[in-house]
Design a protein that fits this description.
Layout lengths: L2 E4 L9 H13 L6 E4 L12 H4 L3 H15 L3 E4 L10 H7 L2 E2 L4 E5 L2 E5 L10 H10 L2 H8 L3 H21 L2 H4 L3 H11 L3 E4 L6 E5 L2 E5 L8 E5 L4 E5 L1
Parallel strand pairs: 1-2, 2-3, 3-4, 6-7, 7-9
Antiparallel strand pairs: 1-10, 5-6, 8-9, 10-11
Helix pairs in contact: 1-3
Length: about 240
């Protein structure tokens, strides 16, 4: 059996074609898998588990339906938060039959110790982004945000999305990529030879001597996933 890894789908009501790709992916590919790992930015934004019914989030409900079907078929599902969906909580995860895992996490992947991260924490050259990340990951800030009414949360999310777009347009891709020293620190600290992450939207398998860094692709124009079994690792875009 195989294990699948995905990230950066950015699912939302405004991009229904990505939702259709995900449904097809689940029904054609993952239904036969041993496990599915979702490494962040699964959703374009997440306003809190309580917001699903309040704002009639059909995309989230669709995802819940597909994931619970996979879970019932025996697929193990794991979710690691990204910079867009860090507020996804235990209630929604449980309703989907998936388990939330911390960042970073080391897993045993067919006898190999592999480190999983989302990847944004390692973009250390992007100082403004890291400052914003520190604020957004602060538990006190998150509690205050979740205590806002849904309209206030939606307004904040929209403004943050526009600011992110502007920042991306005004910042070089090199600065927004992972810092190599930060990556090397992870290899050393966790004593692994393989790291899997997303976030940068630069799908590739980087090989340097015995170390391997696998970057998952986004789903803006295609489906992109890593499939691993006991004998191989394949980064696929369709």
């Amino acid at each position: 059996m195989s294990t699948y890894f995905i990230s950066d789908l950015h699912l939302c009501e405004q991009q229904p074609q990505i939702s259709r790709l995900f449904v097809q992916f689940c029904r054609d590919q993952v239904c036969h898998a041993q496990a599915l790992y979702i490494l962040g930015d699964f959703f374009e934004y997440w306003l809190g588990d309580d917001a699903i019914d309040i704002k009639a989030d059909n995309t989230a409900k669709m995802v819940q339906k597909e994931l619970i079907t996979l879970s019932e078929q025996g697929v193990e599902i794991y979710f690691m938060a990204g910079n867009r969906d860090f507020l996804l909580g235990q209630e929604f995860a449980s309703n989907c039959g998936m388990q939330i895992i911390n960042e970073p996490t080391v897993i045993d992947l067919y006898g190999e110790q592999v480190l999983l991260i989302h990847g944004d924490a390692e973009c250390t050259d992007d100082i403004p982004y890291q400052q914003a990340r520190t604020m957004l990951r602060d538990p006190q800030w998150q509690l205050q945000f979740l205590n806002m009414d849904i309209e206030q949360r939606m307004d904040f999310a929209e403004k943050a999305r526009l600011q992110s777009q502007q920042h991306t347009q005004n910042t070089s891709t090199e600065i927004m990529d992972v810092n190599q020293a930060a990556i090397e620190d992870l290899f050393t600290k966790h004593q692994v030879k393989t790291i899997i992450h997303g976030h940068t939207h630069r799908p590739a398998i980087h090989q340097a001597l015995s170390k391997q860094r696998i970057v998952l692709g986004d789903w803006h124009h295609q489906s992109s996933y890593l499939v691993v079994d006991a004998n191989s690792k394949q980064l696929i875009s369709t």
